Amino acid sequence: MAHTAPAAHPAAEPLPDFxxxxxxxxxxxxxxxxxxxxxxxxxxxxYAALDAAMDRVAATLQRDGAKPGDTIAxxxxxxxxxxxxxxxxxxxGLAVAPLAPSSTREQIADMTADAGxxxxxxDAPNAQAxxxxxxxxxxxxxxxxxxxxxxxxxDWLLPAGAKPQPVAIERDWAFNIIYSSGTTGxxxxxVQSHGMRWSQVRRAEAGGYGADTVTLIATPLYxxxxxxxxxxxxxxxxxxVLMPKFDCAAYLALAEAHxxxxxxxxxxxxxxxxxxxxxxxxxLSSFRFKACTSAPFRPEVKAEVLRRWPGALTEYYGMTExxxxxxxxxxxxxxxxxxxxxxxxxxxxxxxxxxxxELPRGTDAVGEVVGRSAAMMLGYHNQSAKxxxxxxxxxxxxxxxxxxxxxxxxxxxxxxxxxxxxxxVISGGFNIYPSDLEAELRQHPAVADVxxxxxxxxxxxxxxxxxxxxxxxxxxxADAIRQWxxxxxxxxxxxxxxxxxxxxxxSAIGKVLKRExxxxxxxxxxxxxxxxxxxxxxIAIDPDRPWVGSKYQKRHSVFVLGESYAGVxxxxxxxxxVYWQECLxxxxxxxxxxxxxxxxxxxxxxxxxxxxxxxxxxxxxxPTTQTVVATSQLRAGLRxxxxxxxxxxxxxxxxxxxxxxxxxxxxxEGRGVPxxxxxxxxxxxxxxxxxxxxxxxxxxxxxxxxxxx
Length: 709
Description:
Layout: H1 21-31, E1 36-39, E2 44-46, H2 47-63, E3 71-75, H3 80-91, E4 95-98, H4 105-115, E5 119-122, H5 124-129, E6 139-142, E7 151-152, H6 153-156, E8 174-179, E9 189-193, H7 194-202, E10 214-217, H8 224-235, E11 239-242, H9 248-258, E12 262-265, H10 267-275, E13 289-292, H11 299-308, E14 312-317, E15 326-329, E16 342-343, E17 348-352, E18 367-372, E19 379-380, H12 384-389, E20 391-393, E21 399-409, E22 415-420, E23 425-427, E24 430-432, H13 434-441, E25 447-457, E26 461-470, H14 478-486, E27 497-500, H15 514-536, E28 547-548, H16 553-556, E29 569-570, E30 573-574, H17 577-584, H18 591-600, E31 611-614, E32 628-629, H19 631-648, E33 652-656, H20 658-670, E34 675-678, H21 695-708
Parallel strand pairs: 1-11, 3-4, 3-5, 5-6, 6-7, 10-11, 10-12, 12-13, 13-14, 26-27, 31-33, 33-34
Antiparallel strand pairs: 1-2, 8-9, 9-19, 14-15, 15-16, 17-18, 18-21, 20-21, 21-22, 23-24, 25-26, 28-32, 29-30
Helix pairs in contact: 1-2, 2-3, 7-8, 10-11, 15-19, 15-20, 18-21
């Protein structure tokens, strides 16, 4: 059933040209001191208490010598104290750098230093994860009573009733520094001004924010996604209900208990809620406004939310950096769910080509989306060159922010996103949009979730590869799904590979981290390709055809260790840790394992698994048999070897056999694992019998390897 959006709440009074967030909160505290402001798992604060707590924070920071323009950093999960610190620092004229707990401890330390924060506020989990030795001179202060060497918030604060020196906040002062969700190195710090945040307050009435608003927060406070609903809620006197982490059952219980009216969720959260078995049993009739942003929101999920969840549904498209934003009122435009809406009031959106030239208006124009508005970042903190790279200027010299997204407008002026420009695959000169392939793959009954990325290809420049989360209860193979897909798309769109994955990597706000998928695949390819070339080019065959080994048996066979593969695999069954522990304890006899112990003359307990012995189990050789080794089998063997290395973390590897050396050597070098190969008599595959290597050969290789460790 579709639900009609209620009329927006009228403004309490005409809005001025600018008002700072701390001043708005103070005005509400004077008018409605006992109105609820903050609710978390342990406490509730009204506006009078919030205003007084902000004063204490501001006064304490001033006592410590903080001045307007300085910065504090916060790394914690959502709670009342987090909001108090954030707003209190703003009252003193400081900027706030909210840091993602999901970052590495080195990134947290680097971001704290980059922001120039003199104070770092942490909750217990994050304080334990980030040692004090990494956070430099910044004073560490705990939000709870688990100090462990850090100052406690209660001890750091001035006594209740403390008042700060008044600070007249200017609209171009920094409000916050939000660090982008980078996956390597230090993320970029995006500086947003008070003026930018004020522009969001001015839009509050369109979202129905008012004194009766109850906003349920289930996204992290370090995210711009969250702040765009936190700020108008507090500016208009509503209440925030804070969840430290999202959980479907807890979210629905809180929404019902507090009669939530507003929420902001990312697409994956909506998706999980729609799949939650008890969703329809909860009374969610109090909702008036639901928002979504930060990642692609699939049309079928939007339609399901509209059908099953009361209240308006609004999708925002834009960037943390600001620029141009679009708004889709899903409840008003149910036939436009494949779009991200029209430009917001006061926002200008244009399309440019790869050379930075503006494209003419029209439904055929496809280009990078750029935008401008009053809501634009000041720049990347301490990275002026990166700031310039994010900008585009029109013929009049006006500044726009580049999104990196490729899109087009339909005949009604609604923006349709094609893909991220950096995610677009250019194969043989043709543009391939991963989102198109993902949409097609989702039609397969075995596909629960999917991401498509482009990887390097010698033949085509780039080629698409799919990562699929297989639906529970389905057993289709990756090759079967890939073949199904390739029969349905054009020749240039065909998938080169399809891999199953347990779960797509996502940021804390739900974005699929395609960079991780792409780099992981490339890393694997970098280690595989030299090996595959070595095994295929040496015998001058097409790498896409099987290798029939009888003709080349003496030089190029991959020798297999009879029934045992020294901790890699026997047949298709992995030798697990229990098996090898039983061998070490003498509870199980393994002929290869025992032979290696005997020839080395060293008890296995002294070398396993510090030194792993391996051979690739990708073929079988005998005096009267052929070996047929496809390149896919070579890849499979290398993947098995990689799994063994990941599991055992050996300090070195003894490689058995010359052909295995040619295949495995580059792989091991790419992983930085020392290795040494042991000579194998050509044409003989019995390591245990009389044709196997001698104890002296094995011991020489052993000494050579251990000398390198």
